[in-house]
Hints:
The structure holds 2 protein chains of 2 kinds. By secondary structure, chain A is of the alpha/beta class. Chain A has 6 helices and 15 strands. Chain A has helices at residues 23-26, 37-54, 98-108, 145-154, 189-201, 240-246; strands at 13-17, 58-62, 78-81, 84-87, 112-115, 128-130, 134-139, 159-164, 175-179, 182-186, 207-211, 220-224, 228-233, 253-256, 274-276. In chain A, the strands form 5 sheets. A 3-stranded mixed β-sheet of chain A has the order 2-1-15, with helices on both faces. Chain A has a 3-stranded mixed β-sheet with strand order 3-4-5, with helices on one face. By secondary structure, chain B is an alpha+beta fold. In chain B, strand 16 and strand 17 (869-880) form a beta hairpin. At the A-B interface, helix 4 and strand 8 of A face helix 17, helix 20 and strand 9 of B. Chain B: Its main location: cytoplasm.
Amino acid sequence: MAGVMTGFGNFTHAVVRAIPSSLAKEALRMNVLDVDLVKAQREHEVYVGVLKHKLGLQVIELPADESLPDCVFVEDAAVVCGDTALITRPGAESRRKETEAMRRALKELDLNIFEMSDENATLDGGDVLFTGREFFVGLSKRTNQKGAEILADVFKDYAVSTVPVTDGLHLKSFCSMGGPGLIVIGSSEPAQKALKIMQQMSDHRYNKLTVPDDIAANTIYMNLPSKGHVLLHCTPEEFPESAKVFEKLKDHMLIPVSNMEKVKVDGALTCCSVLINKKAKV
Amino acid sequence: MTTEVGSETEVKKEPEKAEEQPAAPEPPATNQTDEAKAEEAAEQSNESPALATDSAEAPTEAKENQEEAQPADNATGQEGEDPPASPPASEKKGISRFLPPWLKRQKSQSAVGPKESQVTPKEEGGVVLVKEEGEKAEQAEAEQTSLTTAAEPQVEEEQVKGEENKETEEGGEEKKDQEERLKPEGGHYFIKSPLKLTKKVKMVMCHVTMLDGSQFPCEVEKRAKGQYLFFKVCEALNLLEKDYFGLSYKDNADQMCWLDPTKEIKRQISNASWQLAFNVKFYPPDPSQLTEDITRYLLCLQLRQDIASGCLPCSFVTHSLLGSYSLQAELGDHDPDEQRLDYISDFQFAPSQTKEMEEKVVELHKTHRGMTPAQADTQFLENAKKLSMYGVDLHHAKDSEGVDIMLGVCANGLLIYKDRLRINRFAWPKILKISYKRSNFYIKIRPGETEQFESTVGFKLPNHRSAKRVWKVCVENHTFFRLMTPEAPTKAKFLTLGSKFRYSGRTQAQTRQASTLIDRPAPYFERTSSKRISRSLDGGSHLWALGNFISFFMYFSQMRLHFLIPQSGKLRVQGENIYVRHSNLMLEDLEKTQEDVLKHQASTSELKRSFMEATPETRPSQWEKRVQETVVVEEIRVAPKGSVTITTPEVVVAVETEVEKPKEEVIEEVKEEVEAQKRSVSVSSDSHSESEEEAGEYHPQVTVSASVDQIKEEPEKEEAKDHEEPDQVAEPVAEPESLPEVEVDAMPSPAVVEETPVAEPETALVAEEKEEEEEEEQPRVNGDVSHAETERIPQVICCSEPPVVKTEMVTISDTFAAQKTEIATKEVPIVHTETKTITYEAAQLDGSGDGEPGILMTAQTITSESLCTTTTTHITKTLKGGLSETRIEKRIVITGDSDIDHDQALAQAIKEAKEQHPDMSVTRVVVHKETELAEEGED
Lengths: 282, 939
């Protein structure tokens, strides 16, 4: 059994969910944009393919539910850290049922499941940034204090600090972990402000990688046995300037993944999967 | 014996001189004439705590004077024989008998109250500070004078001891007290001694809950300070890295409070139960840096307690993992044949543990096969230290809007929690000032990059007490984790105005440094089970009967101290509740670091000593400064009064003999007298170290810097201080000035006021007196045998004088010069040059040497060990005002049962030292004795 806080970025499994046809019209979005459903689905297939074939993760693919247009964004339904999983209570009423399929999937993976049963609590996984040493929880339109408290209760080993998110949908709409101790952060004022708060609240020091585009700061970092540091990030087609920044990460295996359609409904790279480290039973 | 006589003679002279001088200058002078009484009065006035003792002392002093007179005669004639007779021989305990009356007085004074005694010392002080432990007076005697007659002292001591014991047992405390007053009190441990001074020593049984759940009963004097008990506990645990720990108690509101080591226990514990607990006070952020397994083990016990009580929240997985390491450490490898689940359920791994968790624990336990207990502890700590609430001390509070929050004080700063969420964090570097007022607690925040003004954040605590408690914890944690030394070197640093409270222990940096010096085989200790039903380990198992540890400290140098320097009043600043911290502290500290390191290294022996002796640890610089200041005051007073009373802490019998050089024994004697006076000063310093508790009360914050600047000797004298001293030396120049300033700011504490006025005039007088006395005395002294013993030691010295700012100093120096001239002629030329200044200092005793800052040129420590003795030689070369001074400090630790003849050992050691360094004078001999608990109790 691994000790506390070891193996940041080690993942063996991923939970994803297919895109329902309803996404194009009914998925929640902050800006009114038309989504090309087919393109989005193709995009998602590539995404899952990278996880499954390129990175060798065991991918659990949940079927789409037409009554849940946002169900592809599985990240918001659960927070998994180590052997513990917290099934969230998404801030958007329409998304609450997304957790059911997620709960079943995680139970099958034999994780310790915690529920967020408090009716006053809301929390989207997109607001939860786990750095390897601690949690930052964005207090946003989707996540409230109570939800953060419950998360803190579940993950008792870690400090849980709250960060106000005034702009953008989620905390991770403008930041993510790009490696151990490396925070990728957007350059917008709200993003920089949030970073300062995180730095002040933390007992640990983090390096930062600033990218011109906030949404490009959403990346997926993994540390895989055969691959080393792996970073899934935006493509040069989407954000040419930001993509250049990632080129500086010489130690990382860089994998540009297109996300042009899903981003229209505020979906970022991290939103589309729940990563799990399921080690062989000790 | 001869020495004693000599000293006596000197004493007589001194008083006379004192009288003469005093008349002119000031009351202090008169005091000298009046001697003991006056001094006592002054002391008392200055020092509130020791009042009782003082009163007691006064009579003693009177007696002493009488005695002295007699001895003086003897001295003129022959020194050796007198000592026993002079003191109320029968009463006196071994060493004390040998010691000259004044010495005894000193001791008694010291015993009474280190603080007070310090003040008084002048008359006697010139002589030697002898702190005799009531029980084992032996050493003190040996030190100063009697050294020559090793055999006699020994015998006497033995007798004395026997008597003492009998007395103590039979006569009861009162008798002892009386005896002690008159004579040197028994050498209780430093801690105890102050208490002992009191006429009636009431003993109280404390019960300390150890980390394994066992009870440690410990009898302490009713007026014992927290430190005494703490050291007893650490001693019982065989714990050297004790700075991370502390004693706690529950106040009336059932709130856990830390026992202030510098204050009397009974003044802190509200209830009559005297029930305390031994706990980790500062959780080391990286336990792997601890030196000893036993320290890690104790930390593990604390963490298991924290985890089981829910204070340290963990996830299920972590509970299981930590539990499995606990099993491995306590049970060893998992035994597959044994059905242990039932057994396992006796252990508590979590506040509420399930069968599932127990199974998980066992499952994990299997994976630790082959791991030693120490390795398992290490793994336990490596995981526990990562927990977010590790080492966070939580306090309930409300924010400005009345919302319930928690304040978490930790190594890195102040954390603000709302429920379980961290909503803010103020790292120490961000905090400019910490204060409290009524039930409010405030932190002033350094302005951010874009901000222009500092902001103050206020929190509402449930009540005033809790506000102060948070404040204290903050001050302590900041000091411990962020500062290199507790002291505030410069004025600037020492902005601390505010409550007198400061952290007085060693900082983490210091304790780490000290730990590197730990050189002992890993002590054996039994890992007790963490079962819910704690085994009843009797305290007994943990109580190790301590053999008698006697260590002798000899300081050779030519310097005299001028302790007195003006610093006295400075330290105490009464701002009640403000603690100003410099965010730059670390940087500043870093600058000091190298010096400190050197010093620390030098003080290695000291560390050991402190451990062995249970000497109080070094205090924070601030504390030291204050103490020193205090000391200074005392010295001044002493000078006028002439009384030697030494503040010496109970334990140690410090005899400082300053033998000016091997040249003439006479000189030595004279010096001894002088020294005695000085010693008194030094004693005061000692008292600081020893009785941080005692001294602390008065001058809670003694800044090291002050001590450094002014008094080098004092620091040296004090074992604990030694470490500090080096630092002081380095920094001194700046500090002295600063101190004065500080004083201004400082509250006009009574002590200060007294000190200041008295000091200058007194000093002058003293110096004159001393000179006269010395001159007269010296010749006589020369003949004395006693010198021989003490004399040889010395190495060095030169003097230095330092740049003491005060006029007083000057006067002193003159005196000294006079003395030296006579004596000096014979002595090293160097001395002459420096002479006046130096001499005076010498005359003043401690003050001269100490006061001078100087530049530390080199420092080296040599340690040699034999069967039951460890000799540590610490050689420091310092440049002071163009003069180079070499100081050799030898520490000889004799470990063994009471059947060892300590007196002989001491005498032998001193002889050897003298032989080794014929050129040097012995400026001080400190005998530190540690006895078994029982004995102490007797005292």
